[in-house]
Amino acid sequence: MKPRIAGVLVLLAGVVACGGPSDGGSVTSTPPGFVVSGYVHAGPVCPVERTPPDPACADRPVEDAVIEVETADGTWVARIQTGEDGTFSVVLPPAAYTFSPQPVEGLMGTAPEAEVVVIDADLAGVDIAYDTGIR
C-alpha cells in the first residue's frame, strides 16, 4: 500500500508544480470553439461592368472594417477588425450568430448582416460586401 500512496503523492506534487500560472492568477477553462473566417470587400470599383469581367474592376478588400458579433438572443460576443487583405477570423463556440458590419468611411452605409451557425467544425467563407456607390 505504501508505494501506491507515494506514487499518488508524487503525482499530486507534479500537478501542483506544473499547473497554474506562476503569478498567482487562477486557471480558467474556455469552452470549445471553432475558427470562423471570412472576407470583407467593396464594389463596384468601375462604373461599367464588362463581359468578360475586367480584373482591374474586381471588388477591393476593405481594411480595418469592424464587425460586431452577437448571439441569436442579442448577447454581444466579439468585435472583429479586418486585416489589410480584408480577411478576418474569430474563434466561437457552437451557436447561431449575427455578424453586423459597422459603417466604413468612404463607403455607402453598411454591408448587410450575415447569419452564421457554428456547429462542430471550422467555418470559412463568410462573405461581407459593402457598396462603394459607384454607378
Key features of this structure:
135 residues, mainly beta, four-stranded mixed sheet, four-stranded antiparallel sheet, 8 strands, 13% helix, 38% strand
Structural class by SSE content: mainly beta
Radius of gyration over all CA atoms, rounded: 23 Å
In one word, what is the shape? Answer: elongated
Number of strands: 8
Major sheet description: 4 strands, mixed
Q: Into which percent range does the helicity of residues fall?
A: 10-25%
Detail the poorly predicted runs. Answer: 1-29
Mean pLDDT: 82
Q: In terms of quaternary structure, what is this?
A: single chain
Total number of helical segments? 1
Strand % is 35-45%
What sequence of helices (H) and strands (E) makes up the elements? HEEEEEEEE
Spatial gap, N to C terminus: 84 Å
How would you summarize this macromolecular structure in one to three sentences?
The protein is built from one helix and eight strands, in the order αββββββββ. The strands form two sheets. Strands 1, 2, 5 and 8 form a four-stranded mixed sheet that branches. Strands 4-3-6-7 form a four-stranded antiparallel sheet, with no helix packed on it. It starts with a helix and ends with a strand.
